[in-house]
What does this fold into?
Amino acid sequence: MKDLFNLILAAILCAVVFNSCDEKSEEEQVIDALKDLDKMMEEEYTSDLTSGNWYLKDSYSEVNGKKTKTIEDCEKDDFIKFNDSHTATYNNGKVLCEEDTESEESYKWEFRDDYFQIAITDKSGTLVFDYNTINQDNMELSIYKEIDNVKYKITSVYSKKE
It folds into this structure.
């Protein structure tokens, strides 16, 4: 997080220094720098997200600090492919679970909350996941639900390695 803060600060300072000869006000220069930074962050996060298949490695729910594994054997060959066009395909793999009606499911995706969340939308609605981790090789997503006044945190762990 400290690296991200330093990157943001450096981008703003560079924009102010390099644009100081322009007719733009300091406020406009900062706004332009933030827009450039936002574009740069979107490109980096999109690149990490879309650069391969994400294989499901683990899944668990957490209630009151107690973790319970929820991944089934039939899910261990499942993967998600995110595309630059903000579409995604969830592939249920060769071993289908009983509830799987299709081998592939299509989604739309978008970043939210300054790239700390990803929203995935299908025909039944939108789910918003928090990024716990995302880099070139690993991704961990969590979603929070309340069922019968009990708060659950459901986490899925993905890797680019099958």
Remarks:
- The mean pLDDT is 83.
- Strands lie at 53-63, 66-69, 79-82, 87-91, 104-112, 117-122, 125-134, 138-147, 150-159.
- The chain has two domains: 2-47, 53-159.
